[in-house]
Every structure is written in C-alpha cells, then in structure tokens.
Request: fold
Amino acid sequence: MGIKVIDEKCSGCGLCEKSCPFGAISIKSREEVGKPHPKFKRIAVISEVCNLCGACVSACPFGAIVIEVEKKKEEIDLSQYKGVWVVAEMEERRIHGVTFELLNKGRELADKRSTYLGCVILGENLKEKVPELIERGADRVYVFDDPQLKNFVDTLWVEAISALAQREKPEIILLGATTIGRAIASRISGRLRTGLTADCTGLDIDQQGHLVQRRPAFGGNIMAEILCTERRPQMATVRHKVFKPALPDKDRKGEIIEEKLPDGIKLKTGFIDFVKDLTQTVNLADADIIVTGGRGVGGPDGFKVIEELARALGGAVGASRAAVDAGWIPYSHQVGQTGRTVCPKLYIACGVSGAIQHLVGMQASDVIVAINKDPHAPIFKVATFGIVADLFEVIPHLIKAIQKVRGQ
Reply:
C-alpha cells in the first residue's frame, strides 16, 4: 500500500494538513518542491510519518490524495485444503496435557467441517505414544520417529511440519501456546505464507466454514474475533487449560502414517543439555484446587490467610495481576491473561474483582467460589457460588470447617 498526491488536482488548500492526526502533511511552495502548476502555487507533501489512516483522503474536496492498494498477486483454491491438525508435544516422555485439550477441540471443529482430525507427533521411540492420540480422537497420526528428534530442536520441527503441511494441505493447524508452540508456530506460518493467531481462548467455525479465532485484545478490554479468509491453513495457538481434555476411548481406530525428516535440513543450533527449573515450586497449571488472592487482601500479610486456606484444602496459591504488580507475591502465582491459564476442579477467588484479563485465565474452572465485599464485582458473573462478605471474616470459618471435617 502507498499514498499519493495527484499534482494536477492539489490546490494546496491545507484541509488535508488540518485533518492529519499525525502531523504527516505539510503545505509547501510548488517552486520549492519542483512541481510547478499554471494555477496553483502550493501543494501538499506527505512525510514518512504517515500511517495510511485515510483521514486526508476524506478531507480533500478535490480528490487529490489517493491510497493505492496493491492488487492480490496470488489466489489459492481453498477447496484443496481438508482436515484439522493438532501438533502434539512431549514433556518428560509423556504427551503434554495441552495436546489432549487441542484434540478435544479439534474433534469438535473437524466434525463441524465434516473432515478428519489429524495429529503430528515428533520424537524418538514413539510407538507406545501413538495409540493414545487415536484414543483421544485423532483419525490420522503423522509420526516422525527419529533419533535426531530425541530432544527439541526448533528447526527440525519447523522444516518437518512445514513440508508435511505443504504436501497434505490441512485446513486448520492448532498448536499449544507453550515454549515449543511459540517457538515454531510463527516460523511454520511464515513458510506456509498464512496467518497465525496467538493465545486463543476460543475457537469455532462460522457459517462460511472459516475458523473463528477469539482472543483478548487491547489489554484484555475487548474480545477480538479473527478470521483468515484468504489463506490456508488457518493457524492458532491455544494456552494450556483453556479447553477440557479429550477423554480416552479404547475402541477408537485410526490410521498411523510414518514420515521421515526432509533431506537437506541445515541446523545452525544444536541441543547441548536440559536444565530443569527447580525454583518453580508452584505448579498452578496442574493444581486441582486453587485459592487466589486479589487486591482485596490488602497487602503481603493478607496472603497468609490465603495460604492457610490453600494448605487446609491441599491446593495451590494464586494471585491476580494487581497483587503481583504491587509486589505482594511472586509472579509465579499470577493467574490471568499475562500469567497462568488454569482449569482446576475448585477455584476460590478472594478479594478478586474479576477484570476480564483475570477471567480469561480461570473461567473454565469446574467450580468457582467468589468472596468479595462488593456485590457488583464482575467475578460474581462467572462464579458458581458467591459470598458477599469480608474475606478475613469468612476464610477463618472455612478453615475451621475444613479442619473439622478432615479431623485436623
């Protein structure tokens, strides 16, 4: 795209200069810029600051400013693309939980599109892992089983998946918004010359058959729906715990397709060693019970009662962004759009107002209990049970009741 001033039409009236919100337009003498005109003495000059907003085009009464749009150079036949793919991940020789969640959603999307659900898995000695993917919903499993894939090297994954997708032409590719998923998703989409929506919190199919990709935008103040209408495959990454995992069905049958790494892959990096992070003591993503404190706890001392309730329940301690930003508790406890996405069986929100950024990270929990003095707090809209009261009065009673039931 580009913007252009049509010399013979511009009168230098200055209306475009006044309309520009970025100060990108100035009115100059035609002699100064070397563009003489028999009638007009001045002309509009547009600088590099212009961001093509189009305000000046609307303001010009002479039609002297136009935005030129580059014509599409390539059109693809969308009907050639079939199937929904999930890229599987391994974690310490186990299939990562986000894979089962994507298979569940992928199965739903594939059924709506009346197509197959595929799964791509890369690693070494995968024979025992493949049946589990079929049990969880995959119709086809593309298996790259190679000693070079024992440890994750991003280039090998990118080249293998890209080449396979170019050959098989899937309609949709889903990846986890994990360290691995984020490392390869953008590079794969670049090779396939298609779009990518990151950190989706919702996926669906519209009436035209496009993948509707929902995610928070503008700091979580709105939920955006993003479509990729002209390119394929449609690609998205999804955070762990956003969707429910697919349940295993031992009677399911599927096709196993063995693949080989493409020839001629040039590696610029290599795997040396893996050092596990031992400083992360709180695993919120896998916790069945989470007790979260927000701004309402009042300070770092307020988290003592939150921690006591979590211990009584055998759960983990979470926190809202406000509490983390205030320095009351480390970031590793943060739940929400900029923290962890969680889906426990029980989520207790104490003094959490319920901003959309926080709700995105926990609203899929099975049971949500909200404790807040403000009866109009947004958290109550998603809560299964709500308690309008001071958390410091309610929680001690809860702890005593739990300890009594457990004989502590």
